[in-house]
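Researcher: Going back to the complex we discussed earlier. I've cleaned up the inputs and rechecked each line, so this should be the final set. Can you rerun the prediction on the complete assembly and write out the structure?
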Amino acid sequence: MSKKQKSFFPTKRPHGRRPAIAEAVLAGILVLLGVILLAVTITLTALYSTPHQLYISVGYLSLRIILALLLITAGSYFIISLLWKVGVSRERREALVNRAGEIELLNEFRHRREDLPTVPVEAPLQGTVLPYRLRCSRRNLWSLISSAAMSVSLVVIASILVPTAIESGSSANQRSLAVVFLPIICLAAAWFLYRFFRQLLKLTGIGPSSIEISQYPLFPNSKCNMRLFQPGRIRLKVLTVWLICQEEATYDEGTDIRTERRDVFRHRLFRKRSVDVSPEHPFEAEFDLEIPDQAIHSFKSANNRIQWKIIVQAEAKKWPTLNREFRLSVYPRTAIETRPALRV
Amino acid sequence: MCEYRLRAVEGLAIHAIETSVVWIAGGKGSEDIGVHFFQRISKDAINPSMLVRPHRVSTVLPNSPLSYPGMIIQIRWCVRVRMFYGDELELNQDLDFILGNAQVPDTSGNRLADNQKLDSGTIDGEIAPDDAPSKASVDAS
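Model: Rerun complete. Updated structure for the full complex:
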């Protein structure tokens, strides 16, 4: 497939990478401090207050709770705003808002092709340069949320166990249990915090990818233009875009349910080394997307699935490789012939 | 066009005949089946002349799913005839056909060999290729 690429960003290194990373780390620390403060305050108050007298004065207790909630709120706000701002330029955000009203045009795809019950429909969004924008898989965001939830839960448990382990008021049995479990929970919390920050840095450093296409739906042997938008705050070593057809089979093995996935077709659509990206000047490239002739259409049944997707792979020095997934709907051609199966 | 004949089994009375056109997605994963066409002939409608004349099934096939000889997923279409003899005894036979010409570009040699698992039974069948239909069809009478 022929490639024609354009880059509309300045070639010098964009500013503001380190501050973005520092912001992400600071926001995470704020949330963490808030959670620890809240958990310790509630635990100590519950353990050492009597029905007639609180562990600390009401004013001091309220102050600590308010401070903890402020820390959590501020940290969460910074994280959310950073995730939103980092990858999408102002113009693009405005364009998306302005065009939100035109999305009704896409509704026809949701109700179209009811004669194809086994072909999953991945309805696209309205594009900004090309007509259609593909939906990105939410897997990365869920990974971030699950890591955050697990780390916060474990930090809360650890915060509750610490007073039990060190206070003389606890019984010997309680103390020994707390001493045994505290290191394990702290290690687990540290691991999930590490995962959380790693995910957060990945999302903030390498901004959200966006793929737009000129034609939808796609058919075997069809060709269209594809445009990649890649904002971010770091220099990418390699940026690659793949077209992949993946088979996915689910089966029972004993009492387990297993899923096996296999890429049966993989074609590189685009590749560029040394890519500088910034939130203000995202990297943009346009290239061709061609679905092979005689390719199978997208398919989904209860236990079997054939999925076409675009993978944007970003590699940066000292950063984990990032894979972003965009699902495609490939429809079968309407002119279909039948023939007898070969006998063996 | 699909045509089949029934043969009597000595000493057994046919209670019902079911004819269906189905797609089956299988391979590594658990099998999924989609019934596109189904016809049941009950005992009252069965007569000896049915064993003499050929039968034809006719239906307009959908545009999907296409037959597919994948690596861990295979999709096959077949005409399935099942004869019930009572006492939970039944005979069935699948007659496979290929809908479309879908292939995986980098899986050369991965043919539809596994699609040919025909049970030994009492039905002879044959599917003639359809030349250039805008909508594919299996025809039988």
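Model: Worth noting: Chain A touches chain B through 44 residues (CB under 8 Å).
Researcher: Good, that matches what I expected from the previous run.
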